[in-house]
């Protein structure tokens, strides 16, 4: 038996490892299973080049739990180690790496996920163990050996026998603080998280827990639509089928494979982010990919696998790494190209998916200049009747003659709620205007940004003013009322308790509403953005609504009201007309709404009398 002290200057490195890495303690399973995969893959490589001539047999990794002995064992039948290799790789190399790590990161935040990237992979086992044993037999003609260490610098190394022959067992005697790792379900959950797609079979409780050939490792030409959909079900068993997907496959200037799925997004916008998983050679790394995937694509689902993403560095360095920036740019380009291809090849299918696609497209156009340049070609605007879609150029062509204002800006009229804004839409359409629907969460911010990027384009919500003023301010106030009637009508409206309400009499079409309430475009838009959490805009949400109340003096109802001899009845009727207009804009609430209902009942009674 060989006894010795691990060659490291730090008197006892294990407590430091445990303390530094404690928040990621479950990761020891990933590291040890990954090491077993490496040992297996190395043996296959040696066999393929003729350096190993023995029988490979069924290559697999086995995870066994023994609650009675309080042990967790990870076994493989891979390359194995000789006594000399154990001494070299366990007693020397790993600890030199550990020292380097401690020197470099001493004093930094605990919990940094760097295990395995400085030769610490095997030693993560001591985070949860009192004693760790290695029983290993090399593929070479050499006896099996047993190594044991209790977490101090002292170890033993002796010859032994390994019944299973070639391969390695890592036997962890779980400590009291880590008895959660003696729970079958806990181990199964961790294996499914970290090892679900490893390239070597991983068995636990007699069941293989991994798919060794996931879809992203295959060529697109080898996969059918059903294959892609089945893989999506494997990733997200309870989700609706995806709309479509993009297969990533590039080997220069970096290695990257993966599949990104566009999920179906419903009206409730119950969107789940962090649904993209990052792998490195089929080993799960993280589902926090915001440094690698552009922010606007964080709503996508799927898998990215790249061995070129530097995992042994801090996140701040990761953000600045050239490969990370290249990968992010590549993914953006692939998504833009895919959307452009879908639009050109199957516009009808593209339009049918626009409710979900539009969210990604608009978000991308707001946050990425190159994506916006491509997006200008496939961005579509849906008519409020849901009967037609326009590209920006198509909308411009159809509306240039009547929706260009005095400043020579093309006015895009839009509605956020076609049902609620129906009367305004009807009035706009009566003038020949085209009204589109912009009702997603990002639209308030989207149209603000596009106005700065699209030349001579202005967005105006259809209820931002009376129809006559939507394109250019119409100063015509001609109406049929006499001077005396106009004075009396103004006086009646002035009796209405008003806050932040501006009343104006105008001569509109007799078919238009008697009172039209609008809110100025700029202030309403700012409040809309603040309502969905616009950065730095929360103070807008608390500002009072600015209200323009346009009285259509040509509506015949005023002739009728002004004939009434009862002043009190006139005031009630005028107040009700104003309240109806406010109600149409969801601006009548609380006590005012209650008063409106009560007054309406009273008016009906008075009329019947």
Automatic annotation (TrEMBL):
MF terms in GO: ATP binding; ATP hydrolysis activity; ATP-dependent protein folding chaperone; unfolded protein binding
What the entry lists under Pfam families is as follows: HATPase_c_3, HSP90
Top-level lineage group? Bacteria
Cytoplasm as UniProt keyword: yes
Binding-site residues for ATP, renumbered to this chain: 31, 35, 76, 81, 96-97, 168, 315
Report keywords, A-Z. ATP-binding, Chaperone, Cytoplasm, Nucleotide-binding, Stress response
Q: What is stated as this protein's family in its record?
A: Belongs to the heat shock protein 90 family.
What is the name listed in the Swiss-Prot or TrEMBL entry for this protein? Answer: Chaperone protein HtpG
What InterPro entries does this protein's entry cite?
Answer: HATPase_C_sf (IPR036890), HSP90_C (IPR037196), Hsp90_fam (IPR001404), Hsp90_N (IPR020575), Ribosomal_Su5_D2-typ_SF (IPR020568)
């Amino acid at each position: 038996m060989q006894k010795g002290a691990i060659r490291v200057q730090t008197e006892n490195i294990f407590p430091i490892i445990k303390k530094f890495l404690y928040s990621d303690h479950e990761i020891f399973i990933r590291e040890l299973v990954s090491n077993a995969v490496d040992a297996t893959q190395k043996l296959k490589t040696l066999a393929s080049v003729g350096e190993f001539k023995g029988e490979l047999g069924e290559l697999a990794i086995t995870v066994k739990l023994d609650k009675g002995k309080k042990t967790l064992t990870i076994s493989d039948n891979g390359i194995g180690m000789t006594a000399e290799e154990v001494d070299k790789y366990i007693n020397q190399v790993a600890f030199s790496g550990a020292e380097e790590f401690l020197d470099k990161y001493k004093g930094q935040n605990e919990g940094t996920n760097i295990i395995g990237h400085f030769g610490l992979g095997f030693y993560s086992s001591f985070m949860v163990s009192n004693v760790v044993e290695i029983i290993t037999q090399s593929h070479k003609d050499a006896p099996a050996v047993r190594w044991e260490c209790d977490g101090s610098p002292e170890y033993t190394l002796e010859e032994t026998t390994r019944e299973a022959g070639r391969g390695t067992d890592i036997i962890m005697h779980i400590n009291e603080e880590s008895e959660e790792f003696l729970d079958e379900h806990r181990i199964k959950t961790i294996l499914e998280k970290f090892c679900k797609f490893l390239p070597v079979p991983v068995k636990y409780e007699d069941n293989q827990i991994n798919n060794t050939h996931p879809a992203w490792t295959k060529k697109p030409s080898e996969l059918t639509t059903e294959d892609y959909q089945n893989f999506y079900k494997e990733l997200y068993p309870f989700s609706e089928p995806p709309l479509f997907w993009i297969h990533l496959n590039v080997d220069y200037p970096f290695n990257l494979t993966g599949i990104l799925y566009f999920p179906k997004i419903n009206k409730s916008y119950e969107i789940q982010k962090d649904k993209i998983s990052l792998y490195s050679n089929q080993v799960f790394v993280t589902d926090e990919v915001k440094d690698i995937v552009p922010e606007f694509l964080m709503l996508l689902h799927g898998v990215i696998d790249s061995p070129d993403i530097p995992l042994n560095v801090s996140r701040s360095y990761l953000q600045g790494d050239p490969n990370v920036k290249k990968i992010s740019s590549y993914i953006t380009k692939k998504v833009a190209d895919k959307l452009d291809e879908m639009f050109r090849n199957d516009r009808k299918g593209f339009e049918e998916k626009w409710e979900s696609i539009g969210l990604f497209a608009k978000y991308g156009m707001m946050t990425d200049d190159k994506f916006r340049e491509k997006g200008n070609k496939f961005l579509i605007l849906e008519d409020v009747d849901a009967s037609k879609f326009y590209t920006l150029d198509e909308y411009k062509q159809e509306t240039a003659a009547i929706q260009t204002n005095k400043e020579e800006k093309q006015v895009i009229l839009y509605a956020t709620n076609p049902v609620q804004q129906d009367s305004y839409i009807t009035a706009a359409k009566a003038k020949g205007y085209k009204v589109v629907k912009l009702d997603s969460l990002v639209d308030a911010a989207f149209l603000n940004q596009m106005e700065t990027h699209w030349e001579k384009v202005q967005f105006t919500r259809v209820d931002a003013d009376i129809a006559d003023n939507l394109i250019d301010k119409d100063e015509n106030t001609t109406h049929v009322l006499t001077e005396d009637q106009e004075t009396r009508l103004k006086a009646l409206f002035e009796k209405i308790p008003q806050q932040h309400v501006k009343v104006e009499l105008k001569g509109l079409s007799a078919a238009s509403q008697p009172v039209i309430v609008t809110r100025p475009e700029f202030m309403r838009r700012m409040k809309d953005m603040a309502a969905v959490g616009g950065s730095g805009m929360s103070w807008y949400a608390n500002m009072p609504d600015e209200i323009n109340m346009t009285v259509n003096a040509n509506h015949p109802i005023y002739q009728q009201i002004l004939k009434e001899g009862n002043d009190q009845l006139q005031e009630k009727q005028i107040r009700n007309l104003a309240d109806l207009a406010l109600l149409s804009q969801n601006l009548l609430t609380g006590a005012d709404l209650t008063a409106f209902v009560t007054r309406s009942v009273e008016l009906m009674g008075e009329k019947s009398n």
